């Protein structure tokens, strides 16, 4: 009966968001209260469960997401993204232009949230299209595949970062595994798949033809590359620090502090503030105004994450999480595949990769303890499922269609299949990793 109540609540959540057009945060709160009632939590205790779930979910996560938004903002506003693109274009030349765009999307996509990265980089695609007279879809898909991969698999993006926290995974380890999974995903869904799309005609709207920015006003290439990738270097490096323990309490405390994701993101932001802001003669007030705007952009994402935390806590406090673990744990199926399938179903139903990942995590979390599944790989398995089969209920689907001025048929043939390839290759790589780690 409790399992049926969970299924019913998930269906209500899907209907509220898709059919009812209810904001996901409000939908999560409504369904959390409904779930609490159906699962037998006393009415007087439901509010406390909501508070505990929201507070526990946001915690350090709110800091990381906000710092990540600020970091992405200065990468965008300083012209660093454009400079990275220019350097890679010159280095690769016209013959390998797709690979230049793929790497640009990957590097710039790490610090930038998906929608910001899309709006920032699509004009760069169109500038290449007009310069080299190449098909827009053929040129654009590799870069967009790279953006999708970073969004689904790599911290500090909201869904993978939240899942790391939910599953008690290690952020640095997840990032390293994420890189291993991401590379074949974006290569196969990008340049390889794009070879089949040369025949799709696309006439990008003139509105999106980029304005030229004077090269002399851009930061240096080395500055842009090093600063944009700084969180990656620091997160990867921080995974080694615990092994450098000397027994000295002061040093051990310092290493523990530097290995914390909050410290990594704050250090990265402070350095970027200087290298891409103050050093470029940008006034501090202008930089801080940009940071304030960036936090406004992620406010709703934080609320959605908080709502998912409330539903997760209801499941825990009602005891249904244990029932789910007992039920699913008895299935003779790899728990990573279960996470992938569940995320895929919710993604197809709801459209949002972030909501799909967080909803799945709240249901699948008990499997981590009962099955011994690798929490770092579970983050990536759910991330792969959350990217599957993007269609008409996904904002990214419509952004791509309208920017590239495509028919629905061609949007399905290019965007939807690209996203599905990313998901399928992603889960394949996760299962391959699972065999070795």
TrEMBL record:
Bilayer-spanning residue ranges: 30-47, 54-76, 96-129, 136-154, 174-194, 221-241, 253-277, 298-316, 336-365, 377-400, 412-433
Family the UniProt entry places it in: Belongs to the GntP permease family.
Organism: Croceitalea vernalis
Protein name per UniProt: Gluconate:H+ symporter
Entry keyword set: Cell membrane, Membrane, Transmembrane, Transmembrane helix, Transport
Keyword Manganese appears in the UniProt entry: no
Source species, domain of life: Bacteria
Annotated membrane topology: Multi-pass membrane protein
Subcellular compartments: Cell membrane
InterPro entries (UniProt xref): Glcn_transporter (IPR003474)
Pfam families registered for this protein in UniProt: GntP_permease
């Amino acid at each position: 009966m409790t399992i049926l109540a969970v299924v019913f609540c998930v269906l209500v959540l899907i209907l509220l968001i898709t059919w009812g057009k209810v904001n996901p945060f409000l939908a999560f709160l409504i369904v959390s209260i409904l779930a609490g009632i159906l699962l037998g939590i006393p009415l007087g205790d439901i509010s406390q469960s909501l508070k505990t779930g929201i507070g526990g979910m946001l915690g350090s996560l709110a800091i990381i997401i906000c710092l990540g938004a600020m970091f992405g903002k200065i990468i965008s506003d300083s012209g660093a993204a454009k400079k990275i693109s220019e350097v890679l274009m010159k280095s690769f030349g016209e013959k390998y232009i797709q690979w230049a765009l793929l790497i640009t999307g990957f590097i710039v996509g790490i610090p930038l949230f998906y929608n910001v990265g899309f709006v920032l980089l699509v004009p760069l695609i169109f500038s290449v299209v007009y310069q080299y007279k190449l098909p827009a879809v053929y040129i654009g898909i590799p870069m967009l595949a790279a953006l999708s991969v970073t969004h689904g698999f790599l911290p500090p993006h909201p869904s993978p970062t939240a899942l790391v926290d939910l599953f008690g995974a290690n952020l640095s380890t997840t990032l390293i595994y994420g890189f291993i999974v991401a590379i074949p995903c974006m290569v196969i869904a990008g340049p390889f798949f794009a070879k089949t799309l040369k025949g799709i005609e696309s006439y990008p709207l003139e509105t999106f033809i980029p304005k030229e920015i004077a090269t002399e006003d851009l930061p240096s290439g080395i500055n842009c590359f090093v600063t944009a990738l700084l969180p990656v270097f620091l997160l990867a490096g921080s995974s080694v620090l615990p092994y450098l323990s000397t027994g000295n309490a002061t040093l051990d405390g310092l290493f523990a502090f530097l290995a914390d994701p909050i410290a990594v993101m704050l250090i990265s932001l402070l350095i970027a503030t200087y290298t891409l802001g103050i050093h470029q003669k940008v006034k501090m007030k202008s930089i801080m105004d940009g940071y304030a705007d960036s936090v406004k952009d992620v406010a709703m994402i934080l609320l959605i994450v908080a709502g998912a935390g409330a539903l997760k806590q209801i499941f825990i406090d009602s005891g249904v999480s244990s029932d789910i673990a007992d039920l699913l744990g008895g299935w003779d199926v790899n728990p990573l595949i279960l996470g992938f399938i569940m995320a895929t179903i919710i993604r197809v139903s709801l459209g949002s990769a972030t909501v799909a990942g967080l909803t799945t995590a709240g249901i699948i979390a008990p499997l981590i303890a009962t099955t011994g599944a690798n929490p770092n790989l579970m983050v990536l398995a759910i991330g792969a499922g959350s990217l599957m089969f993007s269609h008409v209920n996904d904002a990214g689907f419509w952004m791509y269609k309208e920017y590239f001025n495509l028919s629905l048929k061609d949007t399905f043939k290019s965007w939807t299949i690209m996203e599905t390839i990313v998901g399928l290759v992603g889960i394949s790589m996760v299962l391959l990793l699972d065999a070795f780690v």
